Amino acid sequence: MNNFVFQNCTKIIFGKDTENLVGQETARYADKILMVYGGGTIKKTGLYDRIMKSLRDSGIDVTELSGVKPNPRLSLVYEGIDICRKNGIKFILAVGGGSVIDTAKAIGVGVPYDGDVWDFFTGKAVPKETIPVGTVLTIPAAGSEASDSAVITNEDGWYKLGLTSDVMYPVFSILNPELTFTLPDYQTACGCADIMAHLMERYFTRVRNVELTDRLIEATLKTVISNVPKALANPKDYNARAEIMWASTVAHNNLLDTGRVGDWASHMIEHEISAIYDIAHGAGLAIVFPAWMKYVYKEDVARFAQFAKRVWNVDDNLFDLEEMALKGISALESFFSSIGLPVRLKQAGIDHTRIEEMADKCTMSDSYTVGQFKKLSKQDIINIYKLAL
């Protein structure tokens, strides 16, 4: 196990009707805020009205920024930064899923910065401060509600890049599983794949003697695998929705990073798919992760066999390590298919024509490698895309 420092400052407020507490929580930080959200869904469900009442009852003046899209766009981040600066706004409330929260985080670090916020995503600068961000989560998937990261897509060239910084943890996040009852099945399934990918990126490590976090990751994976079918069968199953929502947060709040080094190649490979083709991030991960596994499993067959046994209950008395590893990969792929997700690029309407372009963007140069479990070159990434066709 490696040395580590773990600190997560996000206050989690979990349970039924907790969105009604948003006013009193926000009032601790500001009486003038920017509220960021997506389209009209929160208005159709009545969530918008409940949040606005809570904010107004606490004496908070609200400026709104709507229109966040999946694979959130840099142009809207710029718009939010401009609104905050012009109106002296010192707090941002994100109401939505990961795309909304990532937009709010990017706005937050952009407001006090003299340069272009995109500098942070390209590594030209490091964020030193932010205006505080709070969240009301409506889609359990990205884990952004308690993470130190955000991912934004720049329409100029369609580059999708991530940023990680300690200043980006939300100050509070409100998690009411009831708010997920109206999610479409496909969005629920995509969220599941995103959660599982966050767990698997951490699980496939070359660091030894990390038994505790191995077991925590395995338990969280099994919880998601067990409860997603229940939520799809009965969208108003509160207990299943609660398990999924809490798993989403735990999967990406950095607790499960402790003492180990994750991989993250699959995320980087997928980012190029969703940046260009604008598919759901979770759907892209359901395609990429099994292909990545097939390409790298021989680097540590025993870890993949452990994954097969502990997560998918593959019997180690019946198979050798390599057979177990392959059965675990097959089980993951079958699970994604069973909940309605694509597991091949062609199932998402994507062909081979832009594979080299995506690999170029992913690696940035021929000498650059991606991932930690196995360091991947541009050619490796091309091979993984081809495996995923």
Q: pLDDT below 50 for ≥5 consecutive residues: which ranges?
A: none
CATH first level of the largest domain: which class? Mainly Alpha
Shape from CA axes? globular
Count of individual beta strands: 8
Number of self-contained structural domains: 2
Can you name the CATH architecture of the largest domain?
Up-down Bundle
CATH fold description of the largest domain: Dehydroquinate synthase-like, alpha domain
SSE order in H/E notation?
A: EHEHHEHEHHEEEEHHHHHHHHH
Report the C-alpha radius of gyration, rounded: 20 Å
Determine the strand fraction and express it as a percent band. Answer: 5-15%
Task: Give the averaged pLDDT, no decimals.
Answer: 97
- End-to-end Cα distance: 37 Å
Polypeptide structure, described:
The chain is an alpha/beta fold. The model has no long low-confidence stretch (mean pLDDT 97). The two termini are 37 Å apart. The relative contact order is 0.11. It is built from 15 helices and eight strands. The chain has a six-stranded parallel sheet with strand order 1-8-5-4-2-3, with helices on both faces. A two-stranded antiparallel sheet has the order 6-7. The protein folds into two domains: 169 residues, Rossmann fold; 205 residues, Dehydroquinate synthase-like, alpha domain (Up-down Bundle), CATH 1.20.1090.10. The protein is 48% helix and 11% strand.
Helices and strands in order:
Layout lengths: L10 E4 L7 H5 L5 E6 L3 H4 L2 H11 L3 E5 L8 H14 L4 E5 L1 H13 L7 H5 L10 E5 L11 E6 L4 E6 L7 E4 L9 H19 L7 H23 L4 H14 L13 H13 L3 H16 L4 H12 L8 H18 L16 H9 L14 H10 L2
Parallel strand pairs: 1-8, 2-3, 2-4, 4-5, 5-8
Antiparallel strand pairs: 6-7
Helix pairs in contact: 4-5, 7-8, 7-9, 7-11, 8-9, 8-12, 10-11, 10-14, 11-13, 11-15, 12-13, 14-15
